[in-house]
Fold:
Amino acid sequence: MYDLWVSVDRCVEACPAKVPMTPGVGFLIRLGRMIFPNGGPICLHALQNYMPILTAKQREITEAKQADWMWRVHHVQCPNPGSRIIWRLEQRPLGGTKVESHHTIQAQSGDLQLSVCEVLGKCTSGMKKGDFAIARNGLLYLPQPFCLWPLQTAIPRLISMQQPGYSTNVWPCAYEKLICPDPTGNVVLQIERV
Structure:
């Protein structure tokens, strides 16, 4: 396993986010947990686009280089073809990157708060009741480390709930709660509008 440092390498055009992603903005993934320096923010849309690659890149690849394309993946990009924010994926020795992980982030009116409301099993990433993330204007804030797996479950709903015309009658918004895909952890999440 590696620490994976994910950071903006370059912007082909300016990022249109409320808090623009600029070169140097980044976050750490250690043992499946995301850690945001200063609590964030990171663009939800970009994160959703490249999140499936993150879990693979933090692991040691044992296949021969010619047998697996993951060896050559060192950059990913946001889904906006107008800005093309290019993110760099850098494998570092496990535990070798120091990042302050606990921050005071206050939810504001209109924010979405994603909270762990139950842990029905044994979460190997250490998620516990009360851990939370905040989605604001298409950006994600993490006041403490947060597991990739339940976050990946919640991102489509967080993005949907921030759109004009949001309706609870369509998937993925019809469910009051979401559950992590790990059947041994069974981390249950709830999204509430502040």
